[in-house]
Amino acid sequence: MTLENNGADPASFRDPSGHVHHIDRKILRTILAHGEHAFTSVWQSGILQRMSASGRMIASDLLPVGDPLHQTLQARHILTHPKLDLITYPYEWPFAALKSAALAHLDLHLALLSQGFTLSDASAYNIQFIGTRPLHIDPLSIIPYENGMRWAGYRQFLHQFFNPLILEAITGVSFTPYLRASLEGIDSATLLSLLPKHHWLRPAIALHVAAPAYGERRSQPLEQGKMAILTPLLKSRYIGLLKHLRSIIEPLRPRREGGWHGYNATTSYNTANATAKQAIVARFIESTRPALLLDIGCNSGDFARHALASGATRAIGIDSDRAAVNAAFQHGSTHFTPLVMDIANPSPSQGWRGIERPGFTKRIKPDAIMALALIHHLAIGNNIPLPHIAHYLTSLAPRGLLEFVPKSDPQVTGMLQLRPDIFPDYTLDAFKTHLSQHANISEHPIGDSGRILLQFERTA
After folding, report:
1. Are 268 and 245 within one domain?
2. What's the pTM value of the predicted model, to 2 decimals?
């Protein structure tokens, strides 16, 4: 097998201790010679099993030594893991998700130190979500603790967890564009330049932002990649530092709300029409029973949760309104993961060779989609032609439920008050014509609202 065809995950090549492989719908993690000594100590201690049983870390099993995959992958040991149905990245998370991931990382680290182990890094990409529950997925980052060890991941923790949270909590500026532009996070010097100066002398900012920023500015380019606290730490100080960071992060809240948060309270539906819409969604879900549903424009997640109650197994929601998505995440669910994303500009493939972090549509393959009260935002708000919308939405899943809002609706008339009406083709008949080129469709009026839900079944 070569690098291109051995099933290696394109994001796992940086770790000399081992790599992740996708083979026969299985997730395999190799342990190579560089990581064998530490792994043997970790595995024999049972710490992986204990952390998995506590819900902090993904489950791991060890392949028998005689399995032919050892020779195929040239590995000393191979772990197997459950396959997650979605991989997400920090630049797609709402504030509450990044905060939850940061606390989960610190809590795992504290639990490990109490049992004689530590973490070799602090990558936010090591955290994934089951619903809204954070889960650490990299067992090879666990290594035995030795007295006087430095915290190797301190600066990485600041860049990928602490600094983004501080940015949004203090300034109200979203961290997601920064993390999408810089996969390694927000460096301390950049954050300090973005914070109002009257915050610089706050103890938490002075210690964990200003001091590291001063160090980064003095570093030579080659040294800027060093991630560790340079002085050895007594174990008690190590634990104290982790707890101190936790005490700063736990009360953080995002400063500002987004523009469409509260949409469900201000929509033009009356009670009868809202009930009719819920009934149509329920019938769609009951008839299709999707294992994975993508709710595009999920807002605060009400209809995604309704879909789960009606028979969907798992739901992913995306919305560009970070406050609404944050509210959806805080609602908590074991089966629903809301993400901050604009469907008109979804996460692209990026990183090393442009494939290290695959784009959103490469990572998710839903059985069904919902796009409720979305099409007019794409067509009128983003100037995307209806043929493009019909083709793209039907390409995402074999079936779906799409809501068409006519020009007579108050939401659309309000949008057109702010700009000339250059959309003569924005009609239900036109959209149905374009949609029917890709799918069979059926119409479901939403009471007397004038809005229509179009159920589609892709034909090719």
Report:
1. no
2. 0.93
